[in-house]
Amino acid sequence: MHNEIEKVLFSENELQEKIKEIGQDLTKEYNECFPLVIGVLKGALPFMSDVTKRIDIHLEIDFMDVSSYGNSTVSSGEVKIIKDLDTTVEGRDVIILEDIIDSGVTLNYLISLIKHRGAKSLKIVTLLDKPAGRQVDLVPDTVGFTVPDEFVVGYGLDYAEKYRNLPYIGILKPEVYKES
Ligand code: 5GP
Ligand code: MG
Ligand code: MG
User: pTM of the full predicted structure?
Assistant: First the structure.
């Protein structure tokens, strides 16, 4: 598996250091609250798991799984809910955790949904941001790392459902795409 990676962008250590910082910041900011931390499946799972261990206050976790309708062409912004929250967000301080924001279409939909359901506050925390891909006006509140306009894998991020279990984030060798 590792020999299919051309370049490591963020090592396991770099990721964990950054996640520790993000966790410490959130601990301070939500000190007086009982935030609801929502992870967007499946990509945000490792980030969710590691960052929540660094948030040193009471919190509640929940998950959502969504998929965009249609194919690779410009999305209408329509998103299908595969798994909804178990929790009521009304009146809650909500933190959404994402693996990466590219076009922003998915998150844009989630933001409207959570606001519509009456969250008291909403914060968007993404491990990676790819601003070059943006199709909607969306600026996350917290970004771990900004990435170039390249397809990255690892630490939750997949290519054809593989590589999510890499402990680091990298770029695949071009021949991997040719083989499939
Ligand atoms: P968008 O912001 O375009 O609505 O979609 C974001 C989702 O697309 C991410 O949560 C992720 O699942 C997927 N995605 C976007 N860019 C990349 C990338 O570079 N690598 C991988 N593996 N997935 C990506
Ligand atoms: Mg995602
Ligand atoms: Mg994917």
Answer: 0.94
